[in-house]
Amino acid sequence: MRDSDSVNDFVIRFANVNGTGSASANGLFAKAIFRSGIPVSPKNIFPSNIQGLPTWYEVRVSEKGYLGRRDGIDLLVGVNPQSLKDDIKSVISGGYFVYDSSKKLHDEFLREDIHMLGIPMMRLSMDNYEVPRHQQLFKNIIYLGVVLALLDIDVKIVQTLIEEQFASKPKLVPPNFKALDIGYQYARDHFRCPLPFRVEKRDLIGDQILIDGNTATALGAIYGGSTMMAWYPITPSTSVAKAYETYGKKLLVDQETGKKKYAFIQAEDELAAIGMVIGASWNGVRAFTSTSGAGISLMSEFIGLAYFAEIPVFLVNVQRGGPSTGMPTRTQQGDIMSSAYASHGDTKHPLLLPSTPTECFEMSALGLDLADRLQTPVFLMSDLDLGMNDHLTEPLKWDKNRKYDRGKVLTAADLEKPDLDWGRYLDIDGDGIPYRTIPGTHPSKGGYFTRGTSRDEYAKYTEKGEVYQRNVDRLTVKWNTTKELVPAPEYYQEENRGSHGIIFYGTTSYAAIEAMDIFKEEEQIIDAMRLKAFPFGEEVLSFIRDHKEVFVIEQNKDGQMRSLLINELNINPSKLISVLNYNGYPITSDHIVNEIGEYLSVNELVNLHSS
Amino acid sequence: MSYTKPSFSHPALPRNKVGYLKRDYEGAISTLCAGCGHDSISATIVQACYELNIEPHHLAKLSGIGCSSKTPTYFMSNSHGFNSVHGRMPSIATGANMANKNLIYLGVSGDGDTASIGMGQFVHVIRRNLNMTYIVMNNGCYGLTKGQDSATADFGSVSKSGGGESTPFQAIDLVGMAMELNASFVARSFSGDKTQLLPLLKAAMSHQGFAFIDVISPCVTFNNNTGSTKAYDYVRDHIDVLGSLDFIPKEDEIKVDYDQGTEKVITLFDDTKISLSKLAQDWDPTDKYSARDKLVQSKKDGHILTGLLYIDPTSKDLHQILNTVDTPLNQLQETDLYPGDDVLEVINQGFR
Ligand SMILES: Cc1ncc(C[n+]2csc(CCOP(=O)(O)OP(=O)(O)O)c2C)c(N)n1
Ligand code: SF4
Ligand SMILES: [Mg+2]
User: CATH 3.40.50.970: does it fit domain B22-323?
Assistant: First the structure.
């Protein structure tokens, strides 16, 4: 049952038909909450379809700043006849269902325990607009007006947003204002406004921004100096490429000539996309690609080449539901294993695990640095939720004096040094990382042959077992160096206090952080650690050692991060307990709290019996 | 294994215009089978680069996987080389070329590498008109995996590994396909015809855009038997050479007399020229349609047509299509790429 009176704490869901222009109206709603100074977390739940299928837009409004998904829909705006029945069912008891009453609802759809608010949206729209397409579009704005009235949201905020949106087409402003007003007035005239739960302006946003992870990732790549991107369209990574292109045109164009300081190529498939990145990186530019699970599978052979030939590659994996085509428009953290160990033979790759768009931005630039520094493929493990939904996040920042870390690259002058004993795969510094040269650097020095087959320290082909082994053992030294270079985990306590801990990463963090507050309220002591990267350093091991049992919370079926921890840190599997969510919806704090609570109570019972 | 050669050189050996000896263009000693057509092509590449006065470090040699793809080890030791994965050299070349437009890119592939596993990348690199030379050392079989038929094996051709049975499938003609895909330079040659291959290679490497040369290159171990259409004897008997071809460097131009009647002279973007003499009546190498007709006709006649079939010296390469800056992308620094103070704050503001 929905709490009666509350302010700035509810979940609203819009149920629409894909391709009917609802996204814009729904976006205005989320932005209006943001501009009201209240933390907001919108999620698109969309089909793999361009037009016609049901799509939902779910917005959580949380004064406390919780940005994870929450179960229970308080207010549902249902304008999709196809999903009406299920939509009505999905409203929490005591909640509200707003629908288009232009056509009468089936009696069987009616529910006694929720408030059914009918508004003749289509009729109002047809009475006021002539063109059929307009009738459809303004119907969306009409329901937005209704929602503003029901929740007591300042209409001026939305009006300003509309003015901004149509700054270049001011003619469109008045009809939008009119539609907004039609809905607003209708709600006021027919229902008690506001509802018991409503919006009140706050100042809780500070200088934060509302941005999707994919845009932030692309911007990070641009600031990080990537001048080459090759990709193949795949949801949910496509918008990384799109944003790179959009911002490339703005930020990476020579003012005088209009020529581009970047190459942006839509490849024929993912095999080619990664090949282009490898070729470009080999030849000295910072290149990257973005893809999703199926693309990683295709790229695997080339990833092995880049690993073994030691070529920097920066790869963005915006994970979606698998296996196979799986749930292509739903979120998952299902490629942890296939990315960490991508390719054949003994291969391992660093993973960066952002949990906010700001971290997408930072880790995108960092990933380019690490790829160059380590001369290896580096993965940024985003997901559909992070990549395609807007998130409230810290503003993007860049130190203008920051230099790219291009790693160990020899210049012509370096190559001239008389005592230089250079071998492409020779470890001089003891960190496992050799020095490389870029083609064309020097007329007679520094040329070498790059290949995926075994070779000696001087890049000469060999099939000698001991030379091969020496080389792959050096790669282990490099792997150990990697542990020191990737971001350390984040802790949520000064020091460990209890016998239990939780480990989480990426978008699971939103719900986990909220769950931690619930534990605190229940006076349960649970320590927490957020992983920011693979490979795991010493700290990760000591956190696990310090606790009797540790819950690993993640969004896949097989507990992939748990497996990785067990495998890489040699942990007794019984110590790590999976808390999983893999239904395609972002994980909720309730789910985490319930699973952990249940485990602990069952085990305490077991302990009682056995003592 | 690759073996290095002794590096003694006689002071009187001739140097080219950029000061290099011919041996500076050579590579490690080949480990291919004695008599393999691929080795003759490598030798011609060495000669072409020497004569074109290419500084070895200004050339990148790229390949896929196969006996043919091993050859970059056997020429141009001082050039950077990249032996990539099977069939995927075109994407490596595309990326490399995007990073530095000032190098010369020479790709070497096999018929297996190109016409089967790498077909997807081959057709798309043509479509993008990447500025590179792409050589297929075409032996109609997979040499390195012991002679299985490749997709260029002609219908009815008999190979050693086929156990006496002939190829039941129609062959893919890479030359016809390249033309169909609007490649801007299409040629065919024969590893045994150095006189033709040398000027062709020089022209290809001077062409701005995608230059494709399909070189029939017999595999002496698996596909040089009677009944094979890729055997030395068969090719020699059926070859049809399209006129004769001369590559004219810029500085030699004044010395050459063109015979307007029987010769066609094509000027490349860098002002070097190709002259073609003894032209066939019904064919003009700058006319795609006549070139296609010529190809179809010779196929009908059971001939292997070689020479420069088609060239478009004015085509735009991928850098021109993408409109990239003149400076190679791999030379751009922080100062060139930093979007400027306050830009990020303006971007942030757009998300509030
Ligand atoms: C992904 C992959 N599949 C198979 C192979 C095995 N393989 C190596 S070379 C080759 C065929 C090479 O044929 P071709 O390109 O015609 O070269 P040739 O040896 O005839 O010169 C194959 C199938 C491989 N290296 N990689
Ligand atoms: S097997 Fe054939 S292609 Fe390979 S090296 Fe020997 S002759 Fe050449
Ligand atoms: Mg072959």
Answer: yes
